[in-house]
Amino acid sequence: xxxxxxxxxxxxxxxxxxxxxxxxxxxxxxxxxxxxxxxxxxxxxxxxxxxxxxxxxxxxxxxxxxxxxxxxxxxxxxxxxxxxxxxxxxxxxxxxxxxxxxxxxxxxxxxxxxxxxxxxxxxxxxxxxxxxxxxxxxxxxxxxxxxxxxxxxxxxxxxxxxxxxxxxxxxxxxxxxxxxxxxxxxxxxxxxxxxxxxxxxxxxxxxxxxxxxxxxxxxxxxxxxxxxxxxxxxxxxxxxxxxxxxxxxxxxxxxxxxxxxxxxxxxxxxxxxxxxxxxxxxxxxxxxxxxxxxxxxxxxxxxxxxxxxxxxxxxxxxxxxxxxxxxxxxxxxxxxxxxxxxxxxxxxxxxxxxxxxxxxxxxxxxxxxxxxxxxxxxxxxxxxxxxxxxxxxxxxxxxxxxxxxxxxxxxxxxxxx
Length: 417
Known about the structure:
- By secondary structure, the chain is of the alpha/beta class.
- The protein has 14 helices and 18 strands.
- The protein has a domain at 2-68 and 101-174 and 281-356 and 397-416: FAD/NAD(P)-binding domain (3-Layer(bba) Sandwich).
- The chain is globular.
- One of its GO terms (molecular function) is FAD binding.
- This is FAD-binding domain-containing protein.
């Protein structure tokens, strides 16, 4: 089977790792000229950890751990109000045992696949046009002018996928706004920085956070929920504009936010990885069309609010590869694509459900709402310290996210050899 994957992030290379072991020939296209080292914290949960174990990459994954020791809510002076230290095997902290930077995870997956004889990476290249998609093959024109033919095209190019836009009608893709915007970037580390994920609730629906990384720098985040139609329009327009407009809006909105806002804003001009993000979910009525299938955020971006984006990408890639590995020679991939969606969609739908009070509860608009939120989190942090509570949470989690990861004979046979 000849497979073309658009996107060298998390889902694409994971899919390639498993497909290559089933004998498929894979080409991965990436629009960037090289692998980008940028990105904020991501983590794995539940069955995604099992996928990494099946790939034999868990030790390498741990080597790239951010070394974040937990999450703490801080006041305007940076003093901790509600600490949630990480506890191995327990989810009593907002920090996961399996924290890694997105760029480091992409590098790890690239290293694990780039030398396989069945995998080819092509950087600085995109799909200009999907020429045909029929019973015989899927034909594409690349940005370099080449026209190539494949048995399967996998769109793993993110929630704003250009491949998806070409192949799937707009009415089949639902974009669900969460009413929240975020800006991420890296800033220099200072001597008084610590290894906690420090979270500060500013007033007027603003959040500022600082997180450590394993590279001697600090990852900063601003998030905001516009409270008026005019403010929403201003932020929406900025999301479609360039970096200068986004930086200007960020400085305007957070100039008086307090805590470390001046330091972070002063560093934005020099940030090598500035990223302005509209927080949205992607929901598709169907994930495949003949020989084209969507994977990861392209098909089912759950938004950072769920903490499940990376996990769904890893598990989905494993599931798709597994179902494709069951096809007989010459069999149309539509059978495997339908099985992948049938088996995985119920879990995706469950993970995309977000309570109606999120993310508003974490963006207090007034002082009394902030006091209420901080008090609630303080109580939670005290309860989390109780040994039997930690044990109960650990027992309830135990790498079980409610999804049973199937074993695929071809992958299991390869592992035993």
